[in-house]
Amino acid sequence: MLVLGIETSCDETGIALFDTQEGLLSHALHSQIAMHNEYGGVVPELASRDHIRRILPLIQQTLFSANRSLNQINAIAYTQGPGLAGALLVGASVGSALSYALNIPAIGIHHLEGHLLSPLLSTPAPTFPFVALLVSGGHTQLMRVNSIGQYELLGETVDDAAGEAFDKTAKLLGLGYPGGAALSKLAQQGQSGRFKLPRPMLNSGNLNFSFSGLKTAVLTLTNKHQSTPQTLADIALAFQEAIVEVLIEKSLSALSQTNLKQLVVAGGVGANDQLRKKLSLKANKAGITVFYPELEFCTDNGAMIALAGALRLQAEHNNKLSQPTRSFTVRPRWNLAELTFTHDR
């Protein structure tokens, strides 16, 4: 089965072709970072308009790269939510229109489910069940993944997610957009040990997260110390160390509580070099195997949506959403734990 994946949830237009026999055939991505940079963040209306301009040329580019035609596509997967309503509507409308015109199935995919399953694009890949640490944008969650569509929420953020904390702290330090990447780059120049920031909810006794207090602690430091380049780098490193320690310890606790030995790390923060190094080291000592998506698949992309769509269409036998239709919906707010899945008995 050949699946066309379409991702337009925020500020990146991602298109991919995934074959259930041959794997990922091709993918293309356009990032809007340069456009949004002068505004210091994503402007929803501009994001939607740019998706409209980019989506059809990217589909054509992806098909050409894979030496495939529209008529060879067997199904279409598009991001249905969560995300910016206008941006989601672009991908959903194009995907549904193609589905109806080609008389092939279409399925709306949860954006976070795409991230959750993205390590399955790599080799070696995890096997079910496993624990997943999702650290993408406004989401920080720990999930037990039993199978496709069978997700149990173990813990989540009660305020700012890790990605939000990175971006907000970057603004406090006078860094550009996207803030998370800029802060991580600055942290590479920092000296460890100069500043010690709190580890929120590290000993809370549950698997929830809270990162809003870190932003306040950083603000206190910046007001107390002269903002020299070295001081800013040291603060950035201290902030990153605090986030990383909390993510690692909570993840290991989740594995201990579930008696599982596989951990998947997915989402934009999953590309953080310090998180990968320290987590892999601790996990290895504990006999835990950690799976990361390739760096190009940590941020939003069409490949993860095409993969998730292919896996769902393969496993779901009576999915009404997969039938060609003239109507479609998007879900800007959509809790991953709400996903339901029915197997034929």
Pick out its properties:
single chain; 345 residues; alpha/beta; Nucleotidyltransferase, domain 5; five-stranded mixed β-sheet; 19% strand
The biggest beta sheet is recorded as: 5 strands, mixed
Structural class: alpha/beta
Helix percent reads: 40-55%
CATH topology of the largest domain: Nucleotidyltransferase, domain 5
Give the percentage of residues in beta strands: 15-25%
Question: How far is the N terminus from the C terminus?
Answer: 23 Å
Written account of the structure:
Helix 4 packs across helix 10 and helix 8 runs parallel beside helix 9. The two termini are 23 Å apart. Mean pLDDT is 92; it is low at 341-345. By secondary structure, this protein is an alpha/beta fold. The strands form 2 sheets. A 5-stranded mixed β-sheet has the order 3-2-1-4-5, sandwiched between helices. A 5-stranded mixed β-sheet has the order 8-7-6-9-10, with helices on both faces. It contains 10 helices and 10 strands. It is globular and about 60 Å long. The chain has helices spanning 33-37, 44-66, 85-102, 111-117, 162-172, 179-187, 212-224, 229-258, 273-285, 302-315, and strands at residues 2-7, 12-19, 23-31, 75-81, 106-110, 130-136, 139-147, 150-156, 262-266, 289-291. Helices cover 41% and strands 19% of the residues. The protein has 2 domains: 2-116 and 298-338, Nucleotidyltransferase, domain 5 (2-Layer Sandwich); 126-292, 2-Layer Sandwich (Nucleotidyltransferase, domain 5), CATH 3.30.420.40.
